[in-house]
Automatic annotation (TrEMBL), chain A:
The lineage of its organism: Bacteria, Bacillati, Bacillota, Clostridia, Lachnospirales. The keyword Transport applies. InterPro entries: BCAA_transport, Leu-bd, Leu_Ile_Val-bd, Peripla_BP_I. This is ABC transporter substrate-binding protein. It holds the Pfam family Peripla_BP_6. Residues 1-27 form the signal peptide. It comes from the Bacteria.
Automatic annotation (TrEMBL), chain B:
It is a multi-pass membrane protein. InterPro entries: ABC_transp_permease, BCAA_transport_permease. Pfam families: BPD_transp_2. Keywords: Amino-acid transport, Cell inner membrane, Cell membrane, Membrane, Transmembrane, Transmembrane helix, Transport. This is Branched-chain amino acid ABC transporter permease. The chain crosses the membrane at residues 12-30, 37-54, 60-81, 93-116, 136-161, 182-209, 229-253, 265-286. It is found in: Cell membrane. Belongs to the binding-protein-dependent transport system permease family. LivHM subfamily.
UniProtKB/TrEMBL annotation, chain C:
It comes from Blautia intestinihominis. Keywords: Cell membrane, Membrane, Transmembrane, Transmembrane helix. The chain crosses the membrane at residues 12-30, 42-60, 67-85, 97-120, 127-149, 192-212, 242-259, 279-304, 316-334. Signal peptide: none annotated. InterPro entries: ABC_transp_permease, LivM-like. It is found in: Cell membrane. Its main location: membrane. It is a multi-pass membrane protein. The keyword Cytoplasm does not apply. The keyword Hydrolase does not apply. This is Branched-chain amino acid ABC transporter permease.
Amino acid sequence: MKTWKKALSLTAAVAMTATMMPVSAFAADDETFKIGVIGPMTGDNAQYGLGVYHAAQVAAEEINANGGFNGYNVEILDAGDDQADPEKAVNAYNDLLDKGMQMLCGTVTSGSCIAVGAEAAEDTFLFTPSATAVDSITSGSNEFRMCFTDPAQGTKSAQYIGEHALATKVAILYDSSADYNSGINDAFVAAADENGLEVVADEAYTADSNTDFSVQLKKIKDSGAELLFLPNYYADNALILQQAHDAGMDDVKKFGVDGMDGILGVENFDTSLAEGVMLLTPFSATAEDEKSQAFVKAYEAANKDEVPNQFAADTYDVLYAMKAAADAAEITPDMENADISAAMSEAMLSVELDGLTGKAKWTEDGECDKEPKAFEIQDGAYVEMD
Amino acid sequence: MSFLSYLKDGISLGSIYAIIALGYTMVYGIAKMLNFAHGDVIMVGAFVILTAVTKGGMSPVLAIVLSVIFCTVLGMVIEKVAYSPLRKASSNLAVLITAIGVSYLLQNLALLIFGADAKSFVTVIDVPSVSLFDGQLVIKGITIVTILTCIVIMVGLMLFVQKTKPGRAMQAVSEDRDAAQLMGVNVNATISMTFAIGSGLAAIAGLLLCQTYPTLTPYTGAMPGIKAFVAAVFGGIGSIPGAMVGGILLGVIEIFGKAYISSQVADAICFGVLIVVLLVKPTGLFGKNIQEKV
Amino acid sequence: MKKTMNKTVKNNMINYGIVIALFVIVQILSGTGHLSRLLTGLLVPLCVYVIAAISLNLVVGFSGELSLGHAGFMCVGAYSSALFSHIASDIPQVPRFILAILIGAAVAAVFGVIIGIPVLRLRGDYLAIVTLAFGEIIKNLINILYIGFDEKGLHVATSAASLKLEAGGKQILKGALGISGTGALYKDVKHYFFPIGIFLVLLTLFIVQNLVNSRSGRAIMATRDNRIAAESVGIDVTKFKLLAFTISAALAGVAGVLYAHNLSMLKVSGFDYNMSILILVYVVLGGIGNLRGSMIAAIILYALPELLRGFANYRMLIYAIVLIVMMLFNWAPAARNWRARVMEKIKGTKNKKEAA
């Protein structure tokens, strides 16, 4: 028994030493820029993290074929899996630094990004494609974002619905246990009044009971709402749309935000349920412009015909924005992270990108200034609205 | 009318918990272990059906049979490899932790094979809805199927346990393992059979779960598994009718909690009621009170 | 009797020694630049989980109750202390951090008493499910809390809209968004979190080891070994079980404080039953009632998935397999016998050599 304990301690000691090994093996390489991706690669939200990781690889390959960052190739390091948990995200961040990461594309989810952002502040250049919470990039001046913030999405949705007179009585159904959903909800409710909207039902569910929406939908139906606002990710929305249809709510308009994107790609999903759903999202995989088409094609070829979602599109733009900044700042791979970070941050302010998700510029806060696009789903495809 | 409508929704949700809890409670009653991996076997069963129907082009009936067989074998393998070596371990916590390990294993295997993307489940059982009071109360076909299946399984299990020889062997093992062995009962075979039946039931539960809420990810089984565990404890863990009643009550409480109090704290309400019930009746609604001896 | 006492004292000293030795090794390595960023980042979380595992072992190992709600107490400790740190941001950092630790421990202890009184009436698996239920209730309720403060004082609400802060007010707890930026409040102290964590580990060990070897500790173990016999010799079973449960909760609260201040983001969804189970895994794998085992298992199992990062998507799969194999190896009677035989053989050959 005792010897066994000793054996256990010995294993522990070996394991510890293994981690303590100096990491010089990874460091000295002056020829390529190493970019890290952090996001959920396993766990409930893995589809978002994987989307980002795959898109980063697609973009990096293209960029390398066209001159790389300031003439140097870029390499996407093995993905840092955080399972959407801030604690694991910080571990992944440290691990990637050990592996020589010089710039970070991520993190994917908000909570993780806040935690990693505090570590990366003024040290490692951070550019998140998809962390929507306001605080995600407030820790340092070297942190940027590609997507809209939660409040921006909530406010812009309320404005859009008001301006286009889609409805006056609106209901909301959202996941109150997730930061993304509740952040948008809070902003939407706050902006409803000034846009002439009356919130007649504000119903919530939680991640622990996200399959049965019968009660919430009944309350919404009884409230006489003309439009149902769904600031949730598409997996939940697919179930909600199904149950709303079963509850006889086909005449209620549905409106989503960027998390709704991907709904048409859900395997076996009856897309007729999504007919007429409107959404504000930066990207459509069925868009006909040349750039989107090329990206979708490259992404599908690299990932077993998986259709890219808006996470992937935002990531693609992140890499190109980074390229523009890197070219302008004339950084080289032998520079220290902090120097790269400072040079890139300064260059970012003058970058203008005409990307997949629209024409974008960045403010000093690191926020992306671009226009949202509104789509309506017709015959199983996105049709851009005005 | 809303009350009736909510009641109907509650029973519909509860019947799903009940059918999962039946498998949980049976395994607990005989093997005396909380099989945390039960929810994940449900997920595996659902994936088997989905793959067989969409990729293999099988007929629904064939797919269901395949899934039941697959899960039965899976259950027996898990029991043999991971649980049976620990049957005589000095603490019964050891096997609980191993079950958690098995749960992680199944989830991550499914993640690697099927990917993380949520998939919509195809309609395998198509039963028309029943409309009452001029369409004011619509009961979905799948709800009726689920409740009927529940009752059939419950009665079948009770008859099996009480009337057949292997069933009585199970009872004997449940009462006193060593004594059962002395009386000539093959304890290992009996426990293995319990897992086989429990996992076969999990395949059916997986089907009904995914027919009622047609979405499937590698983590689909986890939360219903926990809720069903709660339901089983509610009814008195180890009791077959208790699992059925506990499951339906839990569903009704959850829906009423959402309807009349708040949908944000529905889970807290559920768990709160559970605590109150256990404080009043410490072994659940139908649980046996075991006399302690010095 | 004296001899056995000495043995326990020696055993306890070894435990302190291991912790201090590890601390010294880590300090030397980091001083000479041989510590990777990953490991440096893991140090404080390791302290958190070691404290949590030791405190849970008090309940599971010495009091004999299966608790599945340990994360709930960590959660309470984390949130109460983080709220305090934000509200009392005028107090200098060092006394503020000490107060935060005390507040986290105290609030968790209060919850320990509130939950312990009803829960400890139950037995076995029923007790386990109720602790799980309490953990989930805590998580669920904190999730809808919005707390902020302005000149008028503290505002508490269940939605952002009804918080109604005055201009210049600060929102601290934002429902599902949690509390962010707690670490940034301790710019000067932050670099010392690891030594502080080690100190807290030693303190936890000290409290638990002394409790276990005291009169109360023996009473607690007597209630575990045979409740009825313990009652019959006049031991107040509920009182002693509650004592162990409360102290365990308070120490879990301390672990929560360290967790909340080390990370810049505190989200309630992390404190779910999975975290409770994770800590339980450390305790069971390390040996029920074996504090040293808990520490070692917590270190290995927490570090394992991080060390497996090189295996990308396979790492959680490998983790699951390793967990199952380790459990079988450590607990299965057959494996234990096999190990004993192997050990004997090794010893046997050694003896022969010595004889020759």
